Amino acid sequence: MKALRVFAIGGWLSYRALFSWLQPSLFVMVLLVPSVTQMIFFVFLGRAADVENDTFFIVGNALVAAAVPCLFAMSQTIAEERFTLTLPALVVSPANRVALFLGRAFPSVANGAIVAAFALVVGVTVFGIKLGAAAIPGVVLSIVIVAFSCTGIGLLNASLGLRWRETAVLSNFILYFLLLFAGVNVPLDLLPGWLQTVSQGLPITHGAEAARQIVAGSSIVDVAGLLAAEALVGTVYAVVGLVLLRRFEVIARRNATLEVA
Amino acid sequence: MTRLLRTMTLGWKLHFKQESRNPFFLWIVVCTPVIYATMAYFLFQGGQKQATLVAAAVGSAMMGIWSLTTTAAAAALQRQRRLGILELLVASPTPFWATFLPITLAIATIGIYSLGTGLLYVRLLFGVPVSVDDWLAFVVAVPPTILSIGMLGFLMGSAFVRFRAAWMVGNLFEFPVWTICGFLIPLALLPGWVAPIAWVLAPTWGMNALRNAALGTSAWPDIAMCTLLSIVYAVLGGLLLKAFLRMARERATLGLT
Asked: What does pTM read for this prediction?
């Protein structure tokens, strides 16, 4: 019961306070508008390069829009606690660590899914992409699973925040890596073979492919394998992230480096 | 006049050194060109159209310069506020614009790393020769380009002085400017109404100047436009800064807004 309370209330408070979103207008400025402007940039870049069609870039960038809140929110859970000098209090608390960090991850999944859905709706409307009603459940499912997998890598990102102070750099690095190699903006067949292999282990890769196939007319059953792969990738990152969070916490306590990492 | 120049030179030097050691800023100016030049390499090599990768390298370097300016310069005043020295700087006998302008110029100057990284990267990793037809025009074009972007940062920073979340407001302009200033996307591909907006943005002319110099066409008109726009931004920024600071002082909200 206590763990459930830490998960639900702790997660909600952390989401509101740690990401500085006590002003709703910031949500629009930080997440919604950039997700659309980024999409527009890549659609026109795709046209300039004459690679793939608009749908490819709209779906890919809508899904990567989920990665921004997931990556940054999770890293902020450590960085902002350090900034407000509450990280030691958090670490010495007897709260269940899994509940604590999953509680912080859950709002990120919802948040990422909302941002991605918003970007997709705007992209589809502005560029006149045909999205049939039958495709909507599958697209929504893809978005939620991608938001989950991005939060998984976000947990890993948060754990590294215990060892490295520059969490903004780290989050940006992962985001750029996803933009480049997760099949979001560069079709996988244009990448060298070894990078294509790397991309199979990245969040978004399978989810974006699934969403594109659904938009093209496939059913959820047709892309079940891709969605399962996306969920598996996210789960692996989440488990590794939780294990590393615990491990780095122990190391930081042992070396007294919690606030100076 | 000499005192003002000395203040500005010292301010520029100090902030250039200081910001050159900021890991986040260095990340932006070094990694933005690397990532986007890589993307351009894969996209333009893989597509049916071939593009000049040197132009793509310059374009992605310009993206890095703009990215830093829009994030850092827009929030420069907020950082002074956060450090608790904004009131002191405003109250000092030195005109505040002479204190603030060198900060935004120093931030834009760090963009020189971006240009160097972009060109070196495509040369070393992708083996694309840095073939610049008119080196003189290219070298001459760099300072006015950086100056004009710095001035645009000054204008933005002045306009956002009342926003606590200035860096977020500045961030809103990152992708739109990347899109419409011709860094990687030709202006001809965009809707017609975009062109007049692009013309009043100095990065458009800076990019044109560098690209034209690289390709051997005349870059001098673009360099002149960059310089002209720098003057316009400086005047507008100065006026905005004066108006907003007076408002903030009248309402006693300088440290709070």
From this structure: 0.87
